[in-house]
Amino acid sequence: MNIAVVLRQVPDLIETLEIADDGTRLDYGAARFIVNEWDNHALEQALLLKESEGSSVTVVALDFGEVDNTLYEASAKGADTIVKIPWDSEEPPALRQAAALYAEVLRGIGAELILVGCQSHDELEGPLAPQLAFTLNLPYVGVVRGVQPGDQPGSIRVFKEFPGAVVARMSVRLPALIGVLAAEKAPRYVPVSRIRAAMKSTPIRESQVDVPQAAAPVNVLRLYVPEAPERAEMLDGSAEEVAERICQILAEKGLLR
Amino acid sequence: MIQASKKAVDEGRTLTLLEEVLASPEGESVLTCMQCGVCSGSCPYGEVMKYPPRQIIQEAIAGADADLISSPSVWMCVGCYTCAKRCPRGIDLTDVVWPALRDQALQRGIQPPTELRVAFQNLYLYGNLLGISPRKRLDWAKDLDVTVRDLSRQPEPVEVLWLVGCYPSYYPRNQIVTRAMARLLTAMGVRWGVLGKDEKSLGDCDRLFGEEGLFELLVENNHKLFRQHQFDRLLLTDPHGFRALQKFYPRYGIEVPAQHYTMYLAEKIDQLKPLLVRAIEATVTYHDNCCVGRRCDCYEPPRELLRIIPGLKLVEMPRNREIALCCGGGGGGMWLDGHITEHGGKRLSDERVLEAAGTGANILAVSCPFELSRFEDSIKVTGLEGKLVVRDIIELLAESMGLEERKKA
Known about the structure:
heterodimer, A: alpha/beta, Rossmann fold, 9-stranded mixed β-sheet, two-stranded antiparallel sheet, 11 strands, 30% helix, globular, B: alpha/beta, Fumarate Reductase Iron-sulfur Protein, Chain B, domain 2, 3 domains, 4-stranded parallel β-sheet, 9 strands
């Protein structure tokens, strides 16, 4: 099975995010970048499938943030091919533009299974995974916490999570795109010596694609820094007493008539 | 066998555990092991390990290391150096055998315990064990009432380049000690500076974790920094970092004069003594940290510093100096409590605070950043709150000098 994984760079939340002077976007120049947590799970799931099935894994990433380190780390973990898509802006592409870029490269790879994190913390216009599935005209299952080889050739079995800890087991015919919430195991640690060896021995394939016209993004009027809460009150007592106190607080705040 | 190790390295082939041990400078000594078992009997976790140190050597020499490599024992050493210190053959188990064992596990895809994995990632990404932004390295100095020369912003020659360390820079309890150290150095008239956002871990713990690649990455970073700045000597709050500079950095051609703060201040004791104007009426017992103590045979400087504090009475725990019990935090132990407890080990720091309280002391003095939080946690769980407090030697000296925590006006 040929598997492709999309690895995105997102702002690292160990740094305080700053709003740019125009007040409508993040100051990306002041940000530090890290691989999207859920994409990292998608990669781990792909590697687990590779180990059980002998699949090949291609990782695709936009030339943004600390992408080279991320790609070499993916290679050290076991990815067979690492591909970088040119991108020369300080800011990431809008959702549909990103989907168009990834789609063009993924079509060329001919993967039967595409794994993408089902969310990222910098989403403004919605998640990339279903948008990418739509662009590629592929079936999509999201919020998946496990992918296994299917019972039939050309199929996979996925475990999709629903609210209330309900998990559905589904058979999905390939090709398909899966939005990964979690891999079956925690993303693996790879020794730094392996990453450094990959830097010396593994070439990053640069994929040449035409940058599609930016689709009209969401029009952001103003970004705000969240207000720090001033106080907290712990409620105790019976359910009725707590409910009554909640109603009282809401009324005091003018939120209940 | 030694030739075989060299050949395997030359061929780029994955080494066996024994080959990896033999490939290190002191590794050959492992072949002299007579299986006496002193190491296993001395190890604080030997009795709960499936593979205690003696058996690790036995399995390595027999070439039957597959089960060993994947066993929980791999992650149960806390780097106390007791096995190495007592080995009648002088086998350096702590610095050679354990790191090789852990490296083998990592190279064969064995995943370390989760907390340790997170610590590795933090070091790789941010250069510190706590996973906090490098930009916040100097947050401890905010509103400090003395001048801090941040050499990352304005390089200038200094007498002492103080490598503050990860916990002393970031962990709130340690930051109090760090500020005390800044005031103390200033009061002594030392021209000191720090590396601010550029400072990264010296990597000693990583080496003992077996993460040699990560250690090398940090060594390269620090070597570059040392060359960029002018200083007479390095001063370290962290004994693990001191040991790394003393023992492992020279292997990479990096030889810089470095001292743990207890050694540095003990050298200046005549200058320090007249500054100690306030009495501290307390009974104090001192916990020898493993790196400055057992590893470097440096037992007296910390005690000399305590003895010059007016009013202070120093008493010893039954296990002191060479036989001191480890706090359990070294060699990755700070991130292995969960793993060790899961496999039958008890927190050594709990045992140690009970021993300290048994001396009648009301202060447990320490000189390692890991020990503050470990012992303070142990005091809470052993019912010693209100009876015993943990103070770094720096705090006691600063208090005796009248250098209280003050904010800038």
